[in-house]
Structures are given as C-alpha cells and as structure tokens.
Write a structure and sequence with these properties.
The protein is mostly beta strands. The protein has two helices and nine strands; from the N terminus they run E-E-E-H-E-E-E-E-E-E-H. Strands 1, 2, 3, 4 and 9 form a five-stranded antiparallel sheet that branches.
C-alpha cells in the first residue's frame, strides 16, 4: 500500500537543523502516527512521504517556507499585562492559548515588564531550515470515524479518555482559567 491522502501513516523520524543540531526524534519511542493530507505534518514532509511504502526511508531538507514557515515579525506583540487576569505568575517561556480573530493560537511569553507582556505567536521552529530523516513503518486506510474527527484512534478504536456524542469530535477537557479582555475582539490568554 502506498501513502495517499487519508492513509494512516506511522513513521520513525528525527528532525534537526540543517547544520545538524538535533531537535526531536522518535528513537527509543513510539512512531509518529498521523492521517496523510490532514495537515498534521509540515507541508514539505507530507509531500515527501506521498507515494512511499512501508520500509521506505526518507532524508529531506526543507527550507523554512516548507517546514514551519518564515518568521513573521507581526506575530510578535506587546500586550497589556492585565489581559492575563487570573494568572498569578507569568514567566518568560510560558505558553498560553490566545483567542484571536483567526481562532485559537498558541503564544509564548518572550519578555515581561511591569505593565506589558511580549508574546510571540510564531512556531518555535519558524524561520528555520530543517532536515527530516526517517522510515515509514506502517500504512493503513483511515476509518470513517478517524476521517470525520481529523485524527487517528489508536488500534482503530475510539479516542482515549473520553466518549463522543453523535457528531461530536474528539477533544479533551482542560481545567485552565480563561483570561479575557472585556470588550475586546482580541480575546484573552489562557
């Protein structure tokens, strides 16, 4: 079976900066499982995997635009500290979910002053050329349930740790306090 859109694919891989500094790997762990074509992988890696079969190896160098995208200065902002109501401690490196006009987005705190917090909504690997090396270890057809939910279910079963009502997608409950700026379309951070 070849990898096509809507295939469930399992790969073992390593990713490094093009200069060789390792960033992540599935070595000594479980392979990465995903639905091809669902946008789970960076575009360049997904394109590289199309048509491969179990046992095929890959070694692809991707420019930033084909990996996590170019670094976008406009995604670095200073916001008033009071947007983080209910958050007792804010530290550099913390991540929050921001409710934006474009939907939820993860932001990282990069600097803090008495009144302002600098946040960066770029992916941590944005602007970097990356090299992915690995092997395809399994391929199967996705189930209708997996396709409707947009992600795989382990061993072909249902999502773990929760049940679905009819027409409900998989999600997990989070016990996080939501921080909102009243009267703002910018939303808040949680």
């Amino acid at each position: 079976m070849k990898i096509t859109n809507n295939s469930v694919v399992s790969i073992h891989f390593g990713v490094a900066e093009v200069d060789g500094s390792p960033l992540d790997s599935t070595e000594n762990g479980a392979p990465l499982d995903f639905i091809q074509g669902a946008g789970y992988l960076v575009p360049g890696l997904e394109a590289e995997l199309a048509g491969k079969v179990v046992g095929d190896k890959f070694d692809v160098k991707l420019e930033a635009k084909d990996a996590y995208g170019e670094f976008q200065e406009e995604l670095v902002q200073q916001v008033p500290r009071n947007l983080f109501e209910g958050v007792d401690t804010i530290e550099v490196g913390m991540s929050f979910q921001a409710d934006t006009d474009q939907g939820p987005r993860t932001v990282e705190v990069t600097d803090i002053t008495d009144d302002m917090v600098s946040i960066d909504a770029n992916h941590p690997l944005a602007g970097m050329a990356l090299q992915f090396i690995g092997e395809v270890v399994a391929i199967r057809e996705a189930t209708e349930e997996e396709l409707s939910h947009g992600h795989i279910h382990q061993d072909g079963g249902s999502c773990s740790n929760h049940n679905h009502a009819e027409d409900e997608s998989c999600s997990t409950e989070h016990d996080e306090s939501e921080v909102k700026k009243e009267g703002s379309s910018e939303g808040g951070y949680h």
